[in-house]
């Protein structure tokens, strides 16, 4: 296995009785990468995260962490993972320093390295000034920072963050996003979320899970290209007949949107916008606007996750996931 491949997941499945909550999931995580694991609530995200962090046994499949089989060598494999669950495992009656010291010890760090590791984790997570404060007295944003600090205290190769920005205000969300990007400089990061902007703002690659199955996997760059719709919005002061618009170069279909506005459909890679603009000016149609349309990530997400037909019994699988 390449040194750059930190996690390899092959044919991963999880059953709850007769219900299959995760179905044959395959993926890899590379060093320096932020992988967005996206899906609707109950899709199987948290179940998958719990399996790859060793907190839940898979029903089938193989998980390799930095060259170690998670089932055959769990201690060696888990030593390379830092995990922030959706509910951070904080002891709120501890100070930040007491808690991080405890986390370093349960990660079996040598005593002589703990002080330096705590200082580094606090600095990276913006906690240097609050080390002596009780966790219960910190804001939700700072508690999330403490949760991330415990995940990186032992300098793992892999950091798994499950819904790290839920319940935070916009400023806190921005700060956590910056922190996640900084973590990717030295770690591989898996970000599990159902919040669509998190993926665009933070990740290099995105995978979408729906009803336990991986239904999409691609880079953010390719996802952005997919968001380019094969339509142009056209607004004219003196529009011609729709048949004349339909005869424009590359136009496949014309939608009348009212108030002299039209949607022109074209092939994905052939908008002919410049020729259409020249044609409109030449014929004195009074060109007011000609704009390529873009799909939102929400539209792409709905398209992908709504392609599967609802299967009987999936309510139980979704609840379990």
Q: How would you describe this protein?
A:
With 321 residues, the protein is α/β, with parallel strands linked by helices. The protein folds into 3 domains: 1-80 and 164-227 and 301-321, P-loop containing nucleotide triphosphate hydrolases (Rossmann fold, 3-Layer(aba) Sandwich); 84-155, no CATH class; 229-294, 2-Layer Sandwich (Alpha-Beta Plaits). The protein has helices at 45-52, 74-78, 96-106, 111-124, 140-152, 170-183, 196-202, 220-226, 242-246, 273-282, 297-305, 314-320, and strands at residues 5-16, 19-30, 34-38, 60-65, 68-69, 81-84, 158-162, 188-193, 205-210, 213-219, 228-236, 251-258, 261-266, 287-294. The strands form 3 sheets. It has a 6-stranded mixed β-sheet, with helices on both faces. A 4-stranded antiparallel β-sheet has the order 2-1-4-5.
């Amino acid at each position: 296995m390449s040194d750059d491949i930190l996690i390899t997941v092959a044919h991963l499945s999880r059953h709850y009785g007769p219900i299959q909550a995760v179905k044959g999931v395959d993926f890899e995580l590379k060093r320096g990468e932020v992988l967005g694991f996206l899906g609707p609530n109950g899709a199987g995200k948290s179940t998958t995260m719990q399996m790859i962090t060793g907190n839940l046994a898979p029903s089938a499949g193989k998980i390799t962490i930095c060259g170690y089989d998670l089932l055959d060598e769990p201690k060696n494999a888990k030593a390379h993972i830092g995990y922030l669950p959706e509910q951070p495992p904080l002891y709120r009656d501890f100070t930040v320093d007491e808690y991080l010291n405890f986390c370093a010890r349960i990660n079996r760090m040598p005593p002589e390295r703990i002080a330096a590791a705590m200082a580094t984790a606090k600095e990276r997570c913006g906690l240097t000034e609050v080390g002596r404060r009780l966790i219960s007295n910190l804001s939700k944003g700072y508690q999330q920072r403490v949760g991330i600090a415990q995940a990186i205290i032992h300098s793992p190769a892999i950091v798994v963050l499950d819904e790290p920005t839920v319940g935070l205000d916009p400023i806190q969300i921005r700060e956590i996003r910056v922190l996640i990007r900084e973590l990717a400089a030295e770690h591989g990061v898996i970000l599990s979320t159902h919040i669509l902007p998190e993926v665009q703002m933070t990740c290099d690659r995105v995978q979408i899970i729906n009803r336990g199955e991986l239904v999409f996997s691609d880079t953010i760059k390719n996802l952005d290209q997919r968001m380019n719709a094969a339509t142009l919005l056209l607004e004219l002061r003196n529009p011609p007949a729709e048949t004349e618009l339909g005869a424009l170069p590359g136009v496949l279909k014309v939608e009348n949107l009212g108030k002299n506005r039209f949607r022109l459909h074209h092939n994905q890679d052939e908008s002919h916008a410049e020729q259409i603009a020249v044609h409109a000016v030449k014929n004195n149609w009074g060109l007011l606007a000609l704009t390529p349309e873009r799909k939102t990530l929400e539209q792409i997400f709905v398209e992908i996750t709504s392609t599967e037909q609802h299967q009987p019994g999936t309510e139980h699988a979704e609840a379990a996931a």
